[in-house]
Amino acid sequence: MRKRRYTARWKALLTSVVATLGLVFSAFISLPGTAQAAGSLPCDLYGAAGTPCVAAHSTTRALFSAYNGPLYQVTRASDGGRADIGLLAAGGYANAEQQDVFCANTTCRISKVYDQTSRHNDLLPGPAGTAGGVDRGADASEIAVRAGGHKVYGIWISPGVGYRYTGAASGVPVNGQPEGVYMVASGTHVGSDCCFDYGNAESTPSDTGNGHMDAVSIATTCYFAPCNGSGPWVEADMENGMFQGDNGSNTANAGNKSAYVTAVLKNNGQTTYAIKGGDSQSGGLSTWWNGSLPTRGGYKPMHQEGGIILGTGGDNSNRNMGTFFEGVMVAGYPTDAAENAVQANIVSVGYSGQTNVPNGPQGTITGPGGKCVDVAADDTGVNGAAVQLWDCQTYAEDQHWTHNADNSLSTIGRCLDINGNGTANNTQVELWDCNGVGGQKWIQRSDGSLFNPQSGRCLDSPSGATGNGTRLQIYDCNGSAAQKFAVKGGAPVPAPAGKCVDVAADDTGVNGTAVQLWDCQSWAADQHWYHNANGSLSTIGRCLDINGNGTANNTQVELWDCNGVGGQVWQQQADGSLLNPQSGRCLDDPNSAGANGTRPQIYDCNGSAAQKFTLN
To answer: What is the mean pLDDT of the chain?
Structure first.
């Protein structure tokens, strides 16, 4: 009887099967937490499959199990100070509290996204290109979600925001070399303009021809009709086309609409490419295309140049929008097994939260006709940009205003300002660098107006106009509908001993949750209170309420569903106290305690320091 021999071919096959099982197993043992299992993160998985990461970018977590460096850098608007935001533990999740503390009482932008490989392929706001001006960094607190059970921040891309490695990045494939790329991004914060991309691009921000890019995109761009439905679709931007299939169109691509999308692209650089998409919260990947490179001229072979882009096109087309959480680029053509293992790891992270609505301390300012206070030029406002009325758009960054402690109102890094710091009737308002002048102070009044103390006039829509593009001005306060502007961004309520009015349980208050004094934290959603037209004060969806609608001295306050009762009405008095008319008593810090966790109460109004609660 002849003894069987394993040929080299069968030995290789057996090795491949064992490796594949190892990849899948290592992915599934990765569970949400501060750190993750060794060898289980995306770049570990790709590396084990022979396609090493040459770039790895994320603001939410480590992409190598051994990584313990910075994820991104933030720059403060107030003083230009910079801080690197790192991890809670090696191989773990971002330390969002580090950002919150550093950016307290001001705004920050993401000024650098670090490469987690040893190649230092870091991304900076991009230079001007042939199709777009200089990019700005994203607002660092625009979009907070949860990953691994931790609060983390994504990168909110709106027109004018984008990042780039200019030049040929180290190790990134060029001139027809094989490569792969994935990103986790929003499938709900999307648009059809050009371009929300991540991946390989020209070494300079200009269109140098077909095949000079190889970046993955998720957008509602049907570049080559017909397309299947309305998208968004995972597509390949290979320059001068958003490709879904061989020659562009591919009606088999059904799109990916989930809040979090894993968008995958791989390209052997010579003949073949593949597009995949999946829900980053559950399930596997769908293969939308696996076949020939475009038969249009210039794509066989590819001519990549090795630049890296995030949020823009290769020529710096920066007119689209999206939300980015993580992504990598690899050298070589990844196996399906490696991509499946990476998807399993992404699902294990447990991403959660809305990805299409800014959720920082900002809020809208609604005005006449139900329109929103908006900045001309679609989220790209510079000094002097017109402030106007426009249809409310939940995704519009320049419609989300922060009500600052100094009574200024800011958006996209600048303040609502009166032109020339003027005081005369009909002087228009604009956007300008926040500088503390009187023309940047706005006080919400009980009649719904926004009052500027320096001029003694109110924000006004000329002749009560409500059309899109109506330029706002200041005018004599008159109580008309033209001057009703509701600030819905909330603001801190300063309390005795330098504390702020806060809700116990960290932004998760339910009916009956204690209202207390605590150190002021500009990022805390439950410290941002809305002064409503009916006199109530609300935060995180509920109102400041007197327990049991009581009226007696020493009755504590709490959070409760807003219901219009007398125990939810608060009037600012000239001495800085907050009066509850039903009880005839004022909000009070018992015995002037001033310590974290002190429960405020109502007590006879006495003008003492224990009753100074100032509404901004």
So the answer is: 90
